[in-house]
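Workshop exercise sheet. Pairs work together: one partner reads the sequence aloud, the other fills in the structure field after running the prediction. Swap roles for the next sheet.
Pair: D.N. / O.F.
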Amino acid sequence: MMRLAKVITRALVGISAPEVTVEVHIANGLPALSIVGLPEAAVRESKDRVRAAIQNSHFEFPYRRITVNLAPADLPKGGGRFDLPIALGILAASGQIKPDMLESHEFHGELALSGHLRSVSGSLPASLGARACGRTLVLPLESAKEAALVEDVHVKAATTLLEICQYLQQQGELDTAIASPANTIDQRFIPDMSDVRGQQRARRALEIAAAGRHNMVMVGPPGTGKSMLASRLPGILPPMTDQHALESAAVNSISHHGFDINTWKQRPFRHPHHTSSGVALVGGGSNPSPGEISLAHHGVLFLDELTEFDRHVLDVLREPMETGTITISRAARQAEFPANFQLIAAMNPCPQGYSCDGKMLCQCTHEQQRRYRNRISAPLLDRIDIHIEVPKLDKSALDQNSAKNEDSRTIRKRVINAYQKQLERTGKSNSDLSSTEVDEYCCIASDEKMLLDKAMDKLQLSARAYHRILKLARTIADISDSASIQKSHISEALSYRSLDRFNNH
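Structure field:
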C-alpha cells in the first residue's frame, strides 16, 4: 500500500506568509512518523498531538511508515500551525477522507489532544496570501474572526478536527467567519486635551505634530505635563485608512501578545521603558519577531526620559525613522518588518531635572547641560521635526476656576481637515514626503527662502533639517488653510528647533 496526499498551508516570515505544501506519504513498513522540511522543535513535537487528535476524533491512526514533507525544504517552519494540515494529510493519504476539496482550501491550526483547535498567530498575513491565490481559508474560531478583517477572502471557522473532516466529506457545513470589531472607539476612555492646563505653545506643537505625523521631542522640568500631553496625542490623531489598519494589525498578529480585534483601526501607542534594549525596540531574536517600532507602525512610539536610554539604543532608530522599515538579519534567516512610526519623546533639560534658570533649585552649569543633551546624537536629532520647551506652569494656570482649554474633539477636527489636504495633494502625510516631493509641494518665495537660509547659517542645520523645516511649514500652512507657505509659517517652523539653538549657543 502506498498513498500520497497534499495539503496547503502557510509559514510566517516577518509579516509575509509564504505558501507551504504539506506532503504526506504512507507506505508499508515498520510504524513510524517522520517530519522533514526544516521543522523547528514545535513542529517536530506535533506528531504526538496529531496522533492523539486523530484517535480522539474517532478516526484510525495508520500504523505504517508515514513521511511528512513540508515544502519548500529550505524555508524554516515553526509553531503549532502545521498540526491541522498534517492531520488532514494523514487522513487523506490513508483514505479516511476524500482529497477532492483539499486543493481549493488552506488550513492552519494547532490541535489539542482531544481534537479541538487552538488559535494560531499570523492569521492576517495568511488571509492575505489565501486571497491572492483565491483559496478558502479554514482556521480555528478565534483566528478566523481576525482573518475575516481582510476583504474579499472566504474564511471558514471550525472548533474541532472532526467538524473539518465532515465539511470535507460534504456531511456538514462550517460557519463563515465574520469580523466584528468595535464600530466606534469609546472616546470616554481616551484622555482628553481639555485636562491639560496652560502650555498653549506645547498644545499647538502637538496639534501640528498630529496633523503632519511629525516627530517631536518635549524638553522641560518634571511635572510640567510632558507625559500628559503625549498620552493625549492618540485622541487628536486622524483616523486610520483600511490599508494602514490592516498593516498595523498584521504586525500585531505575529507578535507574542497577538492582535485584539477590538482595537481595529485604533492607532497604536507604544511607550517602552528607558531600560529597553536595542532588540526590544527594533526587534530580533533567533526567530526574528517585531520590536516596539514595528508594533507602533502607523501609530505613536513614546519615549519618556529620552536621555536615560542608552545612546547606542537610540541610534538604531535612525534608519527606520528614515525608511519606514527595519530589516533583521540572522545566520539562519532574514525578516523585514514595517516601522512607519511617529516618534514622540520627553526629556528633562539637565541632569537634575530642573530648568537651569539660575534659581536655587538647580546648580547645573551650561557645560553639564550640554553634555546631558549630547546623549542624543545629532543625526537622531536631525530626524525630529519639532523641539518644544515645556516650561514650569504658573500657579494661576492650576486654578480650578480657570477656563479650560480646547477639548480633543475640537482639535481633532482641525487635524483631520489638514490631513485630508495632504492626502488629496500627495496621498501621504507631509512627514513622509521625499526630497523630490518637497521640492514640488513645498515651494517658497524669495523672502521665505532668505529667512530660511539665514536660519540655516546661524543654526548650522543640515540638508535633512532644511527639508524637515519645509515639511513642517507645509503642515502649518495646511492647518491655516493656506495654499502656499508664508513667511509666518517658516518662522513658526523655525521656532520649533530649540535644541538646535541650544547646541549652537
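Discussion prompt: The mean pLDDT is 89. What would you look at next?
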